Structure formats: C-alpha cells, structure tokens
Amino acid sequence: MNHKVIVILLAAVITGGICLAQTDRPAIKEDFKPSTLNQPGQEYPQVNSQGYARFRIVAPQAQSVSVSLGGRGGTSLTKAEDGFWIGTTAGPLDEGFHYYHLTIDGGTFNDPGTLNFYGSTRWESGIEVPAHDQDFYALKGVPHGRVQQILFPSKSTSTSRRAFVYTPPDYDKDLTKRYPVLYLQHGWGEDETAWSNQGRVNLIMDNLIAEGKTKPFLIVMTYGMTNEIRFGGLRNFDIGPFQTVLVDELIPYIDANFRTLSDQPNRAMAGLSMGGMETRTITLKNLDKFSHIGLLSGGSISPEDVNDTPGFKEKVKLVFVSYGSRELENRRGGGRGPFGGDPKANADALKQAGINSVFYVSADTAHEFQSWRRSIYQFAPLLFKD
Amino acid sequence: MNHKVIVILLAAVITGGICLAQTDRPAIKEDFKPSTLNQPGQEYPQVNSQGYARFRIVAPQAQSVSVSLGGRGGTSLTKAEDGFWIGTTAGPLDEGFHYYHLTIDGGTFNDPGTLNFYGSTRWESGIEVPAHDQDFYALKGVPHGRVQQILFPSKSTSTSRRAFVYTPPDYDKDLTKRYPVLYLQHGWGEDETAWSNQGRVNLIMDNLIAEGKTKPFLIVMTYGMTNEIRFGGLRNFDIGPFQTVLVDELIPYIDANFRTLSDQPNRAMAGLSMGGMETRTITLKNLDKFSHIGLLSGGSISPEDVNDTPGFKEKVKLVFVSYGSRELENRRGGGRGPFGGDPKANADALKQAGINSVFYVSADTAHEFQSWRRSIYQFAPLLFKD
C-alpha cells in the first residue's frame, strides 16, 4: 500500500537526502479520531484526515510491539514513559477497511481496541480509514433489510451449515412478492460473515434500494472453503465439494424456504478473489442455473471461455469484472496482478462479441474490501433488469 | 469457581501436608481435546474430561503470560523449551461457557486460539467445558429457526439500533400464522449477541420445538445498556432510556414487521443478571404489555412488589426466577449472592398467594451462561400456555 512512501524514503536514504524525505512527506495532521470499528469506549486505534493510523497498546513489560499495517515491515511501536506502546504508520493508508494484527514479543495477537473480522483463516483486528465516498455504505435513516442467519442441512458434509441471507426492506411487507437471488462469496481465509461485517453489503443494498437505484433482491452468503485448501494454498483447489453444497443443497433450500424467483434469469453469482474463482468455475458449469456473473478481483472470462461453453451468449445476461486500481498497477509493475489473463482485454473482447460485459476499476484501492464495496455498489444496479 | 480446590491447597500448605494435597486432588487425565469454541484449526485451548483447561500461547520473548481462568489469581503459564507458554488450571472448571482473557507482560489480550464473545464491555475469549447435559443446546439435525438481524429506527437515541429476532422453524412455512414474543435481555457488559452466541438460545428453542416441548414463539434481543452505566457500575442505573427504546420503539416495530400476537397475554420479558433487573422494573411498570416474567440470576419479585402493583395477580401469568446453585452458596457463605431478598422465599410467598411462581436452581453452576442456558430451557415450555 505504501510502496511510494517507502520508495521515496529509500531514495532519500540512498542519496543522503534526509531533507528530501522531509519535504516530500506532508506533515502529519494532529486530527486523529478513534476508528469507527473500535470496541465500545476504546480511544485507539485512531485515524487522521490524511489516512495515517496511530496505535496505542498497553503491555508495560513487553520487549517489542509492532502492528502489521503501514508498509512492508508494518509499524514498530515505541514504549512511552507512561508504559504505553505507541506508533503511527509511516504513510497514509488507503481508504476503507484493513485487516491487521499485533506482534507482541514474537506472538500474534489482536488489538484489544478494535472489533475483529474473520480473514486469513482467523479473527483479525480491523481498522476503517474514512473514505471520500463512504456515504454509499453508511448506516442511514432509510428502511433497513435484514441479515438472517440460517442453518441448512448438508448431506454431503453431514452437518447443518450456516448461511446469511439479506432480505430487502419490503420482504416482510408484501407476503406474495417473490425475489431474484444473488449468491455472493467471500475470499480465501474469510467466511460467510465477511460481506456483511467488512463489506457492509446490507447497508449498501438498503441505500441503493432507498434511492431506487436497484431492484430489491436476496443475497445469500455461505462458507466457500469446504475442502483441504482451508489451511493450505489455492494450488490444489477442488471446486467439487463446494459446488455440491451450493448448487445441490443451498440453492434448493433457499428456493424452498424463501420467497424466491427460482428460474435461471433470476439467479446470479458473484465473489471476491477466491470467491470470484469459484463463481467463474461454478457458473460456467451451471449456466442452466445462473444468468448473471460477477468476478471481483477474481479473474475474468475470456473469449475462449465463451467459445468453450455452449449456450453462453444466449444464457448469460451480464459478466461484471472489477479490480482495485492498485492491483492493475501491480501487474504493470511486474507484480502478481489479476490472474487468468488481462481482465480489461477480456471484458472488451466479450463486449465486441455482443455480450453484456462491464469492467470496473476502483480508484486508488488494492486487493481489499473498499474495492469490493465499490464493486458491489456498481454491480447490484445491473442485476435482474427486465 | 474453584474455591474448594484453593481451600484444600491452602490447608495443605498451612499444615505442611503436601501429601494431603496430592491425595485430595485427583490425577489430571491426559485426555485433553480442543475446546469446541476454538477458531478453525486451532489446537488450544483444550479441556479434559474432568473439566481442567490447558492453554498454550506463542510469545517467545514475553516475560510473563497468564490466563484469567482457574481460580482467584488465574493460571500462570510457564515457558517451555520450544518457546510456547503452557499451563493447566489448578482445578476443574464448572461445566459450560466461561469468558477469559490473557495477561501478557502486563497487557490484556485475547487468546488467538479461540472465538470471542462480548462480555465485560469488551470482546473476550471464550472456552466451553462439555456439560453432562449439553445435548439440549447441541446443534442437531432438526429443523432450524433463524436469527434475524434487524436495524430498527430509534428516535429517542437518534439512530438505527440493532436487534436479533429468533424466528422458529415454521415461521416461513405458514404465512398466515402469528406468534407470541419473548423479549430477552443480556447481562451487564454484554450485548444483543450474547443470548445467541454464548447462550445458544436459538438451538435450545430448535431442540425444544422439535421435541414438542414448547410452543413456538419469537425471541427479540437488543442492547440494554443505553445510558451512562456502560462503563460505570450499576449504582446510577436509570431504566428510563432503555424502557423508551424497548417499549415505545422496539415493540411497535416488531409488531409492525413480524407476524406477532401483539396482545398482553402473548408478550413476555426475561433477562439475566442486569437484564433481570431491567425486566423486573419494566414489567412491573407495564403490566398492560407483559404477562410472563423471567428473572435469571437477576433478583426476584417479593409479596410487597405484588401488593404495590395494582392488577398484578390478574395480569401476570408466570413469574419464573432462577439462579445457579453456586450463587446461592455464595450467599450462605456470606458472599454477594442474589440481590433483592431471598429469591426462594419470595417465590414461595408468591405461590402461596396464588400466583404461578416457579423457582429453578441450576446445579453446580455460578453466575455464568450454563445457568442461563438451563434456565431458558426450563422457562420456555412454561410460556404462553393456553
């Protein structure tokens, strides 16, 4: 995130130009406020109007305390005279949500000041840097939908599995109305809580619906890491077990227990990162079930994919692909970047072929939730158009 | 919790009888298993068949690591050769759920091995000691109700407030059916997540309903610490702000947005600890709205209360009071014990006066969630009898 700052600092050090570093980096404004994700009554961590984050940890006898945010090596805190460990990131953080953790004397712990969010296969600390466009995911005085926790039977995994279902504000008003459904997946190391907690997808939908910008629809979110990849990598990923849970167990349960429109034109699937990979694989294999596809920082669909999938042009009503701009910069800079080919080129080629193909780039954000909040805000209004 | 063990140990030390201590304390069985509340893939903390808990923390450069469970001073961990801090409680813990935290080099942190639960006005670590009667709150292959997160408008606090609503398994099957409602409150320092997360009240209801032991009803849970007591004590408690939210805002919202039976005979209120105090105060002032009252480790209703409340005998269909047995032991031993008079004597006096008064004691549990899980299991079947 803070590559530029690090590069400037390194350049300054190498050329002996400490003054250069001092003039290039703006003065840190002392207008720090508690992060909105802090636990009740907690003053730290704080964020200032420039996006710098400041941390304060109580551990008077500790030897070293650092925070995983704020550049490649994180931010080392310094013990003040009052026994508190305190430190500020070397540069501003990107707008939006960031996971982080503390390293205290060589162990990994959460910051007791903040709420926790499931990522990296563990509950991590979270911090929120106010964004210029935060209004679209703010809690406002509009009618609110619900986030319903359901436990659905899964024969293939011999248990009751959890999912969350967003139902729009009018769902319990007109009991004869039926709704389209979006199945929405989290990324690697996250779980079915991510899209509501980190993504605020329920508030995004409430706000879009209140402004008349999207059709109301249900969103179903369940756990997508059903096999061995859980604590390994993505290399040996087998879509089979999750596809069985989603397509053979969850979808029929949702259609039987919620007032859905259960035909193909009214069912969409989207996902972020690994969830995009799952979406791509499952939808291409099940075009009799899904008509709208969203890949958020999770690959793209190429002309070859279209050619290899009989009926694609007739069945698919939308292919939405998005990335954070920093992910594309990484690619140009020789970094990992998007997988599965150039997403913009693929999106353009699909459009040329007459497919409803939309490519969206979130400005100045990385492989993080601010990219995905913005992406879902762009994606939702395009769904289930008559 | 482990007073007995401590007393035995102290006696042994005082009389110089180390052998006594060794013979009086049973050998610790090496059948430790990961707590069911551990984060995915985490091996520690562990619990053995006797209820001893064992902790293991990675913090190789730390000076001291201790756990707040396992007797008055908690459990000090010892650094092993591999750099892990490890330790076992001095005695067995009571059955059920316990909050705890770590103290690392003088700072308070959560155990990265476990899930977190909101208590003591912060997200704390949790551990589960398997109970002989854990079947009644187990996740089983029965039809499951939902836990619905709602955001309801609150003029008095100028915001949208969160509540969770348990709806029984048949709620979305017969869309003409209407249901009674129980308003259920958490304790001091907890929040609206406590009854589902720590209390497993949704699973208790699912299981009771599956066995035909209770009428299906809705349970509404919201945050009860709306005033200055949040980070102070209970001394200056003013019921006003919360009563306004509950009675004037939440109840009308629930009745307008869920299929409820909204008359007095079909509305109950209960709470644990501080939530019992709130229940007692609010119901006595609003007997036109509530017919069933549950106080769980949260005081009792005296004959004087009945005399001071016009219409009590006609309007109140049930007064349920419960405690964990260790809370009553504490009282006898000169400890704090139940507040507001002897709960058993009060319950007996109400019964004598012809009121449907039920007193329940949870065996071998303290002011903790196992008492309240058992209490709600006893309470639910008594509600809304025709």
Overview of the structural elements:
2 copies of one chain form a homodimer. Chain A has 386 residues and is of the alpha+beta class. The first copy, chain A, is built from 11 helices and 20 strands. In chain A, the strands form 4 sheets. Chain A has an 8-stranded mixed beta sheet with strand order 13-14-16-15-17-18-19-20, sandwiched between helices. Chain A has a 5-stranded antiparallel beta sheet with strand order 1-2-3-7-6, with no helix packed on it. Helix content of chain A is 26%, strand content 25%. Chain A folds into 2 domains: 255 residues, Alpha/Beta hydrolase fold, catalytic domain (Rossmann fold, 3-Layer(aba) Sandwich), CATH 3.40.50.1820; 99 residues, Immunoglobulins (Immunoglobulin-like). Chains A and B meet through strand 10 and strand 13 of A and strand 10 and strand 13 of B.
